[in-house]
Amino acid sequence: MRLEDHLPGWEALVPLERAPGHGGLGEQLAAALRAAVGDGRLAPGTRLPSSRILAADLGVSRGVVVGAYEQLAAEGRLVTRRGSGTTVAPFPLPADAPRPPGPGPAGGRRPAVLRPGVPDLGAFPRAAWRRCHERALRTAADADLDYGDPVGVPRLRAELAGYLGRVRAARTTPDRIVVTTGAAQGFVLLAGVLRRAGLDRVGFEEPGSDKVREHLADHGLRPVPVPVDAAGLDVAALDRTGVRAVVVTPAHQYPTGVVLAAPRRAALVAWARARDGVIMEDDYDAEFRYDREPVGCVQGVAPDCVALVGSTSKALAPALRLGWLAVPDGMWPAVARAKAAADLGGPVLPQLAFAELLAGGGYDRHLRQVRRRYRRRRDALVTALARHLPTARVFGVAAGLHLVVELPTGTDDAALAAAARAAGLAPVPLSALREAGAGPPGLVLGYAAHAPDELTAAVRTLAALLGAGHAHGG
Question: 3-class SS at 215?
């Protein structure tokens, strides 16, 4: 079927509004194509023009079209095959299926704007996941549906060992990987093992993730604040605490975004070996780096004393509840027993589907696609902050799904965040991520889940709230 034989001109099918306030051209194009597929104007099997031709027809850059095609392919509405071009999926989703209307507050159908730690849930590779799940069902043996190995499906552990070695420079083997229900269960297992070994305190970055800190405390480990500076965790300060375990985010510190400097990495490993200690490395969003290749994990240089914690929550979606632990040899028996006692093993079919996604390169392709999208959104947020909050210092922009805005001295970041929540936004106050000591006020702003125009509007709202005195509790 030739598109030009059955459709009106593209200008009529995909009207683009170039005036300010109507959103980016890429977002408009994706929305128009999504609607045309959903209501049947673009029928299943229809072949779309190449990105170069459509860009010329619409008078936009080729990158705008490539981004829109990638978005709809990730949603399962378009199918892109090398050598065959881009076509409408055989059974396309309705126009509003993966993009529920309205940003809403946290807890609504979409994440609130500026909420950190959430990927673009509409970019979840539904079509690729469906194919992998169907392939897993077809190829799974009857025995695979029995109670399996509590530490995870062997095929997934093998794929993870290869992926972590290739992408994160980890040094591990399938028989030292535990598949978990997200990073949260990984921390729970480690906390239980450490408690049974007699440890009741754990070093924790300051500032650091309040959720992980509370999670560890709920499972018997008292977090001890350790300061973070421009070189990452202060290892000398860690040594003075006397703890024998620590949680770190060395590739992309949360929330500041700094990378643990090489001398600090060496000092951290030396500390662990001297103390017979354990480094819990939270590798939460290390694949997303925009200025260079992601820095390798610490586990790769010290697999004897580092437990690497990871998950698909930032790369794919939190709802999958898929994570992993790469465990040191000395901890393996205790961690494996703890996993068996916890749940007898996680769901098998999602593990098999994820193994298919890794093996077929779908995971890498998805990461490449969303990395480009997140960089564009990061750039839009930085531009909006420079325009509407010019006195604020912005840092942590080189990687991840969030950045930090340092506010003027005397600003009540908690009051500003509360006012923003009332306006439907969800920034996190920097003060909430500190357990002890003082520091400059600021906000942690997520940018992955929303379009550039939404981010720009959110920053305008923040600037208005700050100007109206809401940052002083007024």
Answer: helix
